[in-house]
Specification:
Layout (H helix, E strand, L loop, with lengths): L4 H25 L2 H5 L6 E2 L14 E3 L5 E4 L8 E6 L7 E9 L19 E4 L7 E3 L8 E7 L7 E8 L9 H16 L15 H25 L6 E2 L15 E2 L9 H10 L11 H5 L6 H11 L8 E3 L2 E3 L5 H14 L5 H27 L5 H13 L3 H6 L5 H23 L3 H14 L14 H11 L6 H29 L26 H10 L3 E2 L6 E2 L20 H4 L9 H11 L4 H23 L7 H23 L3 H27 L6 H4 L1 H11 L4
Antiparallel strand pairs: 1-9, 2-9, 3-8, 4-7, 4-9, 5-6, 5-8, 10-11, 12-13, 14-15
Helix pairs in contact: 1-3, 4-9, 5-8, 9-10, 9-12, 10-20, 10-21, 12-13, 13-15, 14-19, 16-19, 18-20, 19-20
């Protein structure tokens, strides 16, 4: 502390200034509505409301009477406050407002060449949403307010309507923290920041302290974001999801997502009872079908009989099976069921593996930085670690922590830890232990997300020189090490093959073709016509933007493939939306730099394998399953890892050239900022099944926090 006293005091002063700036922003900028409306003369329109009232004096809007109209106002109107009673069921209410003023003698609406007053969303529980600023011309004569939308729950209680109402002052802690965090990031990663002078190799203690601090924040942010979508978490306490709390336990679990979401839990229960098929009996009509994989025929029979069937499970020989990887069941569900008799909450598994992925990816990147690139600074390291972790798709899996996300998240976590162990083995005296641990992690990917097994191909560039070129494999020690490298693959493969054979009578049949899904997987096959639209969507599709928070919109999709395309909502291709990946366009030139820096071609081989594997996995996903946003996590990490290594190479080449290195930093900061901003907004886009859909009235509070001027 004494040695770095001057530096610490300088940082403390800067942080104090930043806190003061964030405080000023929250008080004077984000609360501008409070100051702007302070001089208004409020007009109470209660006496002009022609609506029935309940016993408490609240006005009542019904499905037959949900229009409020005021005439002959003859006054300036700056805003309207629609004060829905908070003592009623929480909901988000769409309101359409029309008015006549000096520029409009009649109510105006959207035409071919103009856009009328858009609908406003008012939450019954969020006070800021009740204030609607109007852009009028001169005096307003008539005002019409109509509740619109099909999903409105009537009756609606209304306490009153006010013109030119005073907005209350509201200190928003979350908004203040977000502004403070952004300002601190700007300060920490500015081009002249001291973190760019702290080199990973030369200053190990300070760099490790900085990395640990940054990772701790990332883990906290990821955990907070998952619990923010509380409807999918599946745990309850006396103050969290208390509607599902059992009233006695400190924490208890409950099922979320319906029968289809309980596949892993059902498989764990079946395994505990000594069987591999689910205990639920398929309906007789399904067992009698000639082709049970025809969804249209299944739906017709379900309507006729009224008997439901399990969707998205494997159906074979009159039994339901789970075709998703079995490792998550063995890792989480079965032990939890045996210990408690309850179903393991899937979201907690997704969170655990997401945190392990962040730790593993950080450790792996640190290993590369310290032992392959001598000039990497703490600033450059963190500047590349952040997009590697947060732009690879795991936050979207955390956004929807379902059993669909869990095997992908497990596969990614096992992959990064497997690669880390392999990297540790290269300079370790105890190679066998690290090799075995790394290969075990990589092999377990087959029981989670088989597509990610392509990352095992990285063994070739990592170990080729040692075991083939230098002929270490010909030595007794080398043979033992190679046995440790290969043995876990055979052990895991034997277990998975036995599992497959016990279920389907085939060593290599995972059961995906027996899936009761939206198309007949037994006849899907491979078709080159699917590849072009998939490649465009996954890689080249520009983001679709709107001018209102959170700005991102679902990307349009058109295809000339004259067959069935499996497609869910997506938000743009990674090469178009993540500018940090644009460095891949200069791969050849950058690798030429690397050839002048080092004698070995390990990094060259790793980058080639990563890029080729990413393209292969993306196209395989499209062929075998379809185009879905969560599948981006299957391959995005590979491209990001390749881009990070290329940036390390450039940093190494320009380390001693101050002007060029400074320019590189500025460009890198811009590329990373845009990439992370896109990924952050993707996490906040309203989607079916997420927080915004389940609790739209609460999500409106987030929207109003950002659109503070509205």
């Amino acid at each position: 502390m004494l040695v770095y006293r001057a530096s610490l005091l300088k940082v403390a002063r800067a942080v104090a200034v930043i806190v003061a700036i964030a405080l000023l922003l929250e008080v004077f900028v984000f609360n501008i509505g409070f100051f702007a409306t302070a001089g208004y003369q409020t007009i109470d329109l209660d006496g002009r409301l022609n609506l029935p009232q309940d016993e408490d004096g609240a006005y009542v809007l019904t499905d037959m009477d949900h229009v409020i109209e005021f005439s002959s106002l003859n006054t300036e109107v700056h805003n309207v406050m629609i004060d829905f009673d908070e003592d009623q069921a929480a909901q988000n209410i769409a309101v359409k407002i029309q008015f006549t003023d000096s520029a409009h003698q009649t109510y105006f609406d959207t035409t071919e060449y103009t856009i009328g007053v858009p609908e406003a969303w008012v939450s019954t529980k969020v006070t800021p949403s009740k204030f609607i600023t109007l852009q009028t011309a001169g005096f307003v004569e008539n005002l019409r307010i109509e509740v619109v939308g099909e999903d409105i729950s009537y009756p609606i209680k209304l306490d009153g309507v006010y013109l030119n109402a005073h907005r209350p002052f509201a200190f928003n802690g979350v908004r203040f923290a977000a502004a403070l965090g952004i300002l601190l990031l700007v300060y920490a990663f500015r081009p002249k920041s001291a973190i760019y002078r702290i080199r990973i190799v030369e200053n190990p203690r300070k760099s490790k302290a900085g990395i640990i601090f940054a990772v701790a924040l990332e883990l906290a942010l990821t955990t907070t974001f998952l619990f923010y979508g509380s409807n999918l978490v599946g745990v309850a306490t006396s103050s969290y999801n208390y509607g599902s709390w059992d009233g006695s336990s400190l924490v208890n679990t409950f099922e979320v997502g319906g029968d289809n979401a309980q596949q892993y839990a059902m498989l764990a229960e079946a395994m505990a009872h000594g069987q591999l098929y689910l205990e639920e009996e398929p309906p007789q009509w399904l067992q009698d079908m000639d082709d049970p994989y025809d969804k249209g025929a299944r739906d017709e029979l379900q309507k006729e009989t009224g008997e439901p069937y399990l969707f998205d499970v494997a159906y074979h020989d009159g039994r339901y099976y789970v075709y998703f990887g079995v490792v998550p069941v063995l890792l989480f569900y079965l032990p939890f069921y045996l210990a408690t008799g309850a179903s393991f909450p899937t979201a907690i598994g997704v969170l655990v593996m997401a945190l392990l992925f962040i730790l593993g990816a950080t450790a792996l990147l640190d290993r590369f930085a310290r032992y392959h690139f001598r000039s990497v600074s703490l600033g450059v390291y963190l500047l590349l670690q952040i997009p590697l972790v947060f732009c690879c798709g795991i936050m979207y899996l955390v956004k929807f922590p379902t059993f669909y996300s869990l095997p992908i998240m497990c596969g990614l976590a096992f992959s990064v830890w497997g690669l880390y162990c392999w990297m540790r083995s290269r300079l370790s005296r105890r190679k066998c232990g690290w090799l075995f641990a790394g290969s075990l992690c990589m092999a377990l990917v087959a029981g989670c997300r088989p597509q990610l097994l392509v990352l095992s191909l990285l063994a070739f560039p990592l170990f080729w020189r040692t075991y083939i070129t230098e002929r270490r494999l010909a030595t007794r020690r080398g043979m033992a090490e190679f046995a440790c490298l290969a043995a876990p693959y055979f052990l895991v493969a034997a277990g998975i093959m036995a599992y497959n054979y016990a279920r389907f009578g085939s060593l290599t049949d995972f059961g995906a073709n027996y899936n009761l899904t939206v198309n007949d997987m037994t006849k899907r096959g491979m078709n080159l016509g699917r590849l072009a639209p998939a490649f465009f969507t996954y890689f080249l599709q520009p983001p679709c933007m709107a001018g209102v928070f959170p700005f991102l919109q679902p990307a349009p999709f058109d295809t000339t493939y004259m067959g069935q395309t499996i497609k869910e909502v997506t938000f743009g291709g990674i090469l178009a939306c993540l500018p940090i990946l644009w460095v891949l366009a200069f791969t050849r030139r950058i690798l030429a730099m690397r050839s002048r820096q080092a004698e070995t071609r390990t990094i060259f081989g790793i980058i080639v394998v990563l890029v080729a594997s990413g393209v292969l996995v993306a196209l395989l996903d499209a062929e075998l399953a379809g185009i879905l946003q969560r599948y981006y996590a299957d391959f995005s990490f590979m491209f990001l890892a390749a881009a990070v290594l290329l940036c390390f190479v450039v940093n190494e080449q320009l380390a001693e050239r101050a002007g060029a290195h400074d320019l590189m930093l500025k460009v890198l900061i811009v590329l990373v900022t845009v990439s992370v901003a896109y990924s952050a907004l993707l996490c906040l886009v309203p989607e079916t099944g997420w927080y915004s859909d389940v609790y739209p009235w609460a999500y409106q509070g987030l929207v109003d926090s950002v659109l503070f001027w509205k």
